[in-house]
Amino acid sequence: MILVTTDNVEGKQIVKTLGLVRGSTIRARHLGHDIMAGLRNLVGGEITDYTKMLAESREQAIQRMVQEAEGMGANAIVSVRFVTSMVMSGASELLAYGTAVEIA
Q1: pTM of the prediction?
Q2: Which residues of 53-86 are buried (b: 16+ CB within 10 A; e: fewer)?
Q3: For residue 86, what pLDDT is reported?
């Protein structure tokens, strides 16, 4: 599966547009991580627990989007985007979406 943020895949032609595909995940913060993040905020630096959590969330959302596209018969997804939104205090959704296409 080819994923691109552009409207087309260079060197390939879109022969069929199959439609919108998306994948999402909702993650909640962890109290222990929040305490460590608060301490890290005092001294500065990367909050690695949150970096790891967000990276895992992005990968899971991409995987779910790809599964939906494969179910439609796509071999590529163009115009891939990410959006995050707060669902409730301490929990956020990460959504990956794009257009499933068949390329040749």
Answers
A1: 0.83
A2: beeebbebbbebbbebbeeeebbbbbebeeeeee
A3: 87
Count of structural domains within the chain: 1
29: CB partners within 8 A, 6+ apart: 90, 91
| DSSP for residue 69 | H
87 or 99, greater pLDDT: 99
**CATH number of the domain enclosing 56:** 3.30.110.70
The bridge status of strand 76-88 relative to strand 14-28 is unpaired
Contact in structure between 77 and 99 (CB atoms under 8 Å) = yes
* DSSP state string for 15-51: EEEEEEEEEEEEEE--HHHHHHHHHHHHH-S--HHHH
Structural domain boundaries enclosing 86: 2-103
The CA-atom distances, in angstroms, between 1 and each of 48, 81, 91 are 30, 16, 30
> What are the tens digits of pLDDT across the range 31-79?
555 555 555 566 667 777 778 888 999 999 999 999 999 999 999 999 9
